[in-house]
Amino acid sequence: MKTATREQTGSTIIDVTGDIDIRTSPGFRKTLLESLKNTPRLVVNLREVRYVDSSGIASLVEVFKEARNRNKRLVLFGLNATVHDVLQLTRLAKIFEIRETEEEALQA
Amino acid sequence: MNCDKGSAPERLATLPPGGPLKFRMRMASDPRLLSVVRGTVSELAAVWGFEDEQCRRITLAVDEALSNIIRHAYKNRCDQEIDLNFQAHADCLEFSFLDRGEAADPSRFCAEPLDEIALGGRGTHIIRQIMDEVCYERLPEGNLLRLKKYLPGAKSKAGPAFTHV
Asked: Would residue B6 count as lying in a domain?
C-alpha cells in the first residue's frame, strides 16, 4: 500500500493505492492521523484500493472519531465494490461521509 | 482447464472422481503472505461456481481468520506455522485452519451485535456474516477453525451457525 498527499484549499487529499490489511493498516492509520492534525477536512481517495480488511476499517473508524472530536471532517471517495461491501458488512456505510468523485468530496 | 494468465477460471459443475477437491497449504504466520492466499482463495471460489460478490466475501472471511491467528494466537510472530486446508464438496467450500498458538476466546465468535464505532471485533463479525458454519475446536495439537460456505441454493440458510467444541 502507498499513500500520496495533496493539498487543496481547505482540504488535504490522501491518494491510497494497493491493499489495506494487517500488514499495511498501521502505516495507513498513522498517515491519516498525522494529516488530520493539519487540515479541517481530510479527503481520502480509495479508488486504487483493491482490498481492505477489518484492520483497515478500524483505522478509518479511529480517524473518523478523531475528526469528530476535533470538529473536523473525514470524507471518503472512489470506493470500489470490494471496499463498499466491507463497509456494508460492518454496518459503517452510513457512518462515513462517502462521495463518488473527488469534486463531490471537495464540495461536501 | 485453460491456464492462460488473465483468462476467467473454468467453473467445475460436478465433483471430480475421487471425492472432494482438496487443496492444502502450510504457511508462515507472516502477513506478507496474506495477499497470496487471497488470490488463491478467490480463484478457488470462482472455480467452484460462486459469483463475484461471494468470491470477494469468502476471500475476506478467510483473510480475517488468518489475520486473527497471526494477531491473537501467535501475537504477531511471523515465524510460526498455519495449516490451511480447502475442501470443495458438491454443495459447499470448507476451509480449516490449524495453528499451534494460544487458545482463542470462543466468546469472540459469538459476540454481541457489533457496536458501530467500536475499534475491535469486526473480523469475527465479518466471518460470521459471510460464512454459513463456523466451528472452533481446541485440540491437543492446537486451534482448529472450520468455516463452511454453501453454494447458493444448496442449503437454506437459517443464519450463521457457530459451534464451539
From this structure: no
3-state secondary structure B83-116: EEEEEECCCEEEEEEEECCCCCCHHHCCCCCCCC
| B154 has a pLDDT exceeding 80 | no
Q: Range of B29's domain?
A: 21-104+121-164
| Best mutation target, B36, B60, B114, B125, to test chain A (most A CBs within 10 A) | B60
**Poorest-confidence range of A31-35, B3-7, B130-134?**
B3-7
All cell numbers assigned to B37: 492466499
For residue A17, give its domain range: 2-107
- pLDDT tens digits, residue range B28-84? 999 999 999 999 999 999 988 899 999 999 999 999 999 999 999 999 999 999 999
In sequence order, what are the beta bridge partners of A7? A12
Contacts of A25 in chain B (CB under 8 A): none
Closest partner CB to B117 (pick from A51, A65, A82): A65
